[in-house]
C-alpha cells in the first residue's frame, strides 16, 4: 500500500525518522557528550566539554526582559502543613467525600 500523491508530498516535508533511511542514520538529541566511557563501565566527565553560561553582572539594569512575567500570581495549590503536598492520598479521599458524599 502506497500513499497518494498529495499525501506523499506532505510526508516528504517532515523530518526524517530512522525508519525512512539507511542503517547508518542516527538522529540523536543534539545534546552532545560531556565526557567518555572507560573500559570498566564508568563515565568520566571532561570539564572542557561541559557547557557554561555567562550571566550578566548587573541583572537589575539589564535591558532585555525574560520570557516569563515577573508579576505572576501564585498558583492555586496551597498544601501548607501537609507533608506529602498534592500527592497526599488522604487529601484526595477527603475531597472525594466532600464532592460525592459518603459511600
Compile the SSE list and pairings:
Layout: H1 5-13, E1 35-37, E2 43-45, H2 89-100
Antiparallel strand pairs: 1-2
Order of helices and strands: HEEH
Give the DSSP E fraction (strand runs of 2 or more residues): 5-15%
Number of helices: 2
- The largest beta-sheet arranges its strands as 1-2
Tell me the number of strands. Answer: 2
Short description:
This protein is mainly α. It has helices at about 5-15, 90-100; strands spanning about 35, 45.
Describe this structure in words.
The chain is mainly α and 103 residues long. The chain contains two helices and two strands. Strands 1-2 form a two-stranded antiparallel sheet. A hairpin with a 5-residue loop joins strand 1 (35-37) and strand 2. The mean pLDDT is 78.
Quickly list its features:
mainly alpha, 2 helices, two-stranded antiparallel ribbon
